[in-house]
Amino acid sequence: MPTTSVTARTPEETAAAGEALGRTLGASDVVALTGELGAGKTCFVQGVARGLDVEGPATSPTFVLVNEYRGRLPVHHVDAYRTSSLTELVDLGFLELMGGDGVTLVEWADRCAPLLPVRAVRVHVEGLGDEPRTITITDPR
Q1: Residue 95 within a domain
Q2: Are 131 and 39 contacting, i.e. CB atoms less than 8 angstroms apart?
Q3: CA-CA distance, 95 to 10, in Å (whole number)?
Q4: For strand 121-126 and strand 103-107, is the pairing parallel, antiparallel, or unpaired?
Q5: How is 22-46 classified by DSSP, letter by letter?
Q6: Which of 16, 21, 96, 114 has the lowest tally of Cβ within 10 angstroms?
Q7: What is the DSSP code (8-state) at residue 1?
Q8: Tally of domains in the chain
Q9: Residue 21 falls inside a structural domain
Q10: pTM for this entry
């Protein structure tokens, strides 16, 4: 399982790392993001969305749990931060999203790890505040 690590010194570099990944994604791919609050997961997702040719900004779905965008594939952006149980995600159709014709991006993926496919691309973003971000991408595809 190949693992790469990127150091991003700015939000633009974080988004650029996401954009590079986004260009490689295809139907039914899942990207599972982890990292502390404020580490840059949403910034990375914005880059992934750009790499998938989504027009307009990708915004954090913290309160609605799922945002959908149109690009070269449908993009489902899930934020599991406020979910109270795995059942809540299942009831929202989470499993169907991951098996569909689009790409599913999951922030706070550690909160729903048992539901994620083994083929999920794992992205961990580390660093806070003005620190550079270390972005570790494990891609089993």
Answers
A1: yes
A2: no
A3: 34
A4: unpaired
A5: HTT--TT-EEEEE--TTSSHHHHHH
A6: 114
A7: -
A8: 1
A9: yes
A10: 0.92
